[in-house]
Amino acid sequence: MNQKVKIQKLHANKEYLQAPSTYQNTVILENDDEASILYGSHDRHLRLVRDAFQVQLVARHGLLKLEGEKERVDASKEVLSKLLEIVRSTGRLDLEDVEQAIVDAKSEATEESIQAIDVFQKGIFIKPKTDGQTKYIEAIKKNDLVFCIGPAGTGKTYLAVAMALSFLKSSRIRRIVLARPAVEAGEKLGYLPGDIRAKVNPYLRPLYDAIADMMDVAHVKKYLESDLIEILPLAYMRGRTLNDAFIILDEAQNCTVKQMKTFLTRLGMKSKVVVTGDITQVDLSAGEMSGLIDAQERLMNINNISFVYLTKVDIVRHKLVQDIVDAYEL
User: Fold this and answer.
1) N- or C-end of the chain: fewer Cβ atoms within 10 A?
2) With contact defined as beta carbons under 8 Å apart, do 208 and 230 qualify?
């Protein structure tokens, strides 16, 4: 019996880990020689990958089938694909190559899990997509007051809401407070029909949309009714002290200096505040100083206050949004 036939028989129908499979993927091998190098002496390379990612490996008829949890299967396939590239380019594969590929993959997975934001939708994790967004998330974790300034589409509001829900889910805060200036109504909300929530709903729609992506409708309704998620217009914030809360002020470039001071001095014990805005889109009356621009000048060098600046490279909406931003900068 020739060597190739021996190798084929060695790996045919061999199962490396007996465990219930939830997800499958496949690595396709071109020939027995390639398989022999990839698998290693006595299948040592395969066993290392199997043990590192706790997946089931089945070698059969030129295919290497991977079964197990999706994230583990995907990670192990990535490692095996990289190793296969080495085999095909060099005709060999050292044990050190296998060990290093596993270490690299696990390091990447650890880094991604650190950045992943756990929200209320089962199986849904929100992850920053750019370096700027990653810095933003880290700033929120490390500081009690974060200002995020940048153009439309950079995830300022969306990531702030994701972090707020994550903090609420893990009981690090007791409630979320959402605020946004109602510039068009001049903050004279008493002239609008309905209760407070109805009056400010049009202005808080972007915040609701973000929440709807991360919670089911029943949860959103329940949390609003119980004030675990609270709508608090700037016009009604005077005299409040917000303890154990994650507070988001959106579109802060449309706050006056007085409104910004009123808002920031509501910060209570064990609370976090995230202020977002785009200082290139101020809708205040001519000659009125933006509270966000003013705060940027006053608070820049205070400890535990962080300013994060996102740019057009952090835009993650439709690709046309970045082109539009570029066009208006001309």
Assistant:
1) C
2) no
Amino acid at 272: K
Q: How far from chain centre, in Å, is Cα 165?
A: 12
Task: Return all residues near 32 (Cβ < 8 A) that are at least 6 apart.
Answer: 4, 7, 8
Find the helix or strand (DSSP H, E) in which 137 lies: helix 131-142
Are the C-beta atoms of residues 260 and 252 closer than 8 Å to each other? yes
Judge contact between 11 and 39, C-beta under 8 A. yes
Question: Alpha helix locations (H) across 143-255?
Answer: 156-169, 196-214, 217-225
Sign of CA dihedral 25, 29, 32, 33: negative
Q: What averages of pLDDT result for each successive group of 10 residues across the chain (330 residues)?
A: 41 40 82 91 91 88 88 88 92 91 72 65 76 91 95 91 90 90 53 57 74 84 88 76 91 93 91 94 88 94 94 79 74
